[in-house]
Design brief:
The protein has 360 residues and is mostly beta strands. The chain has a domain at 184-360: Single-stranded right-handed beta-helix, Pectin lyase-like (Pectate Lyase C-like). It has helices at residues 14-25, 282-286, and strands at residues 8-12, 31-35, 40-42, 46-49, 56-60, 63-65, 77-82, 85-90, 94-96, 112-117, 120-125, 128-130, 137-140, 143-148, 151-153, 164-167, 169-180, 186-188, 192-202, 208-213, 222-233, 239-244, 250-265, 269-275, 291-305, 309-314, 321-330, 340-344, 346-355. It has an 18-stranded parallel β-sheet that branches. An eleven-stranded parallel β-sheet has the order 4-7-10-13-16-18-20-22-24-26-28. It is elongated, with a radius of gyration of 21 Å.
Length: 360
C-alpha cells in the first residue's frame, strides 16, 4: 500500500494507482505496479498514459472494482492504457466492471473495462474480467499483443459485453482462454490483420465474429486471420463474418477456420452480408453490401447444430464471396432430421466429408 490505497471496496484509489503508474513509467529501465492480493480496490475512470522509460508490468493479484454507472457521465472507458511499449499485465487477480446496474438502461454511457490504445509488444496473462458494462477488452492501433490464459465472464443476457474487441491492430494472439459473455467472445473490426486465435472456449455468447464491417467510409481491410483448435458451447453463432447490408467498400481475405468443435451452436458457419440489427426497413432490401469477402477456408469443423441450416452463406449480390473452401465438415442437427446448407452469391469448392451436403 505504498501509495495509500485502501482495499475496502469503498475508497477511491484512482490517485494511488495513477501515482504508482507514474513512478513505474518514469523509472529508467522499467517498473512494476503491484495491486496486492486480498484486496478489493475501487478505481474511478483512469487513463494510464505512456510512453514510459522502459518496460512496465502491472501485477494484478487483487481485485479492481469499477464504480457504479452514475460515475460514467463522460468517457468511453474505465481503465485505458495508452501509447506504451513493452507492457505486461499478469497475476491471479481480476477486473470487476460491475455492469449489472448499467445493462438495463440505454441512457447511461457504458464504458469498456480496459482499453489498450497504441500499445506495442504486450502480454496479458492469467487475469480475469467480470461483468463489463460494455466490452471487456478493446484494442485499437496495437501491435504484437498476446492474451494468454485469460478468463472473461458476463451473463448471456448482458448486452454488448464482447470479450475482446480488435480494431486497426496487427500481430494479435489470443490463446488458451475461456470467454463467455452476452455478445461476441472475440470480435474483429476494421483493420484487424495477422490475427491468431487458438484454444479458446467460447460460450455463452455470439461466437467469434469478423465484423460488422462496411458501416463507415474508408474502413481498413481485414486479412490474415486464423481461428483454430477451439470449442463453442451453446453460442448463437460459431464463426461469423458480418457486413452491413448498406455498406461502404472494403475487403476481408485470407481467413482460416480450422479444427473447431461446435456443441449445440445455432449458426455454426455463417457469412451474413445482410447484417442490420434492429429494423432497416426498405433500406435493407434496396442496398447491397460492398464488402468483398474472399479466400476463406473452413476445415475440420464438427459437432452439432442447433438449427437445420448449419452452413449459411448470404453473400453480396454486388461483390459475391469468392474462394470459399469447405473441407471435412460434420455438423448434424441435434433436433432430429437433416442439416442443410444455404448459398447465395458465393463461389467456392468443397472437399472431403460434407454434412450438411455442400451447396458450393
Amino acid at each position: 500500500m505504498h501509495f495509500g490505497a485502501k482495499p475496502d471496496a469503498i475508497t477511491d484509489n484512482s490517485k494511488a494507482l495513477s501515482s504508482a503508474w507514474s513512478e513505474a513509467c518514469t523509472n529508467n529501465g522499467g517498473g512494476i505496479v503491484l495491486i496486492p492480493a486480498k484486496g478489493r480496490f475501487l478505481v474511478l475512470p483512469l487513463l494510464l498514459q505512456g510512453p514510459c522509460h522502459g518496460f512496465i508490468r502491472i501485477q494484478l493479484d487483487g481485485e479492481l472494482l469499477a464504480p457504479l454507472d452514475e460515475h460514467f457521465a463522460t468517457g468511453d472507458y474505465w481503465l485505458s492504457i495508452d501509447q506504451v511499449n513493452n507492457l505486461f499485465i499478469d497475476g491471479l487477480g481480476s477486473l470487476d466492471g460491475r455492469g449489472s446496474t448499467a445493462w438495463p438502461s440505454t441512457s447511461h454511457n457504458r464504458p469498456v473495462s480496459m482499453r489498450l490504445n497504441g500499445i506495442n509488444n504486450a502480454r496479458i496473462t492469467n487475469i480475469k474480467s467480470y461483468n463489463s458494462k460494455l466490452f471487456h477488452f478493446a484494442m485499437h492501433g496495437c501491435r504484437d499483443v498476446t492474451f494468454d490464459h485469460v478468463t472473461v465472464i458476463a451473463p448471456a443476457n448482458s448486452p454488448n459485453t464482447d470479450g475482446i474487441h480488435i480494431s486497426s491492430s496487427s500481430g494479435i494472439n489470443i490463446m488458451h482462454s475461456t470467454i463467455g459473455t452476452g455478445d461476441d467472445c472475440i470480435s474483429l473490426g476494421p483493420g484487424s490483420k495477422f490475427i491468431n486465435i487458438t484454444n479458446i472456449q467460447c460460450g455463452p455468447g455470439h461466437g467469434i465474429s469478423i465484423g460488422s464491417l462496411g458501416k463507415y467510409p474508408n474502413e481498413e481491410d481485414v486479412f490474415e486471420v486464423t481461428v483454430r483448435d477451439s470449442t463453442f458451447i451453446g453460442t448463437s453463432n460459431g464463426v461469423r463474418i458480418k457486413t452491413w447490408s448498406s455498406s461502404y467498400s472494403s475487403m476481408v481475405s485470407k481467413v482460416t477456420f480450422l479444427n473447431l468443435q461446435m456443441n449445440n451452436v445455432k449458426n455454426p458457419i455463417i457469412i451474413d452480408q445482410n447484417y442490420c440489427p434492429g429494423s432497416c426497413g426498405s433500406q435493407k432490401m434496396m442496398s447491397k453490401s460492398m464488402v468483398q469477402i474472399k479466400d476463406v477456408r473452413y476445415e475440420g469443423i464438427r459437432g452439432s447444430s442447433n438449427t437445420q441450416v448449419a452452413v449459411d452463406f448470404e453473400c453480396s449480390e454486388v461483390v459475391p464471396c469468392q474462394g470459399i473452401v469447405l473441407q471435412d465438415i460434420n455438423l448434424p442437427f441435434n433436433g432430429g432430421g437433416r442439416t442443410t446448407s444455404n448459398c447465395h452469391n458465393v463461389r467456392g469448392s468443397a472437399f472431403g466429408h460434407q454434412l450438411p451436403p455442400s451447396c458450393l
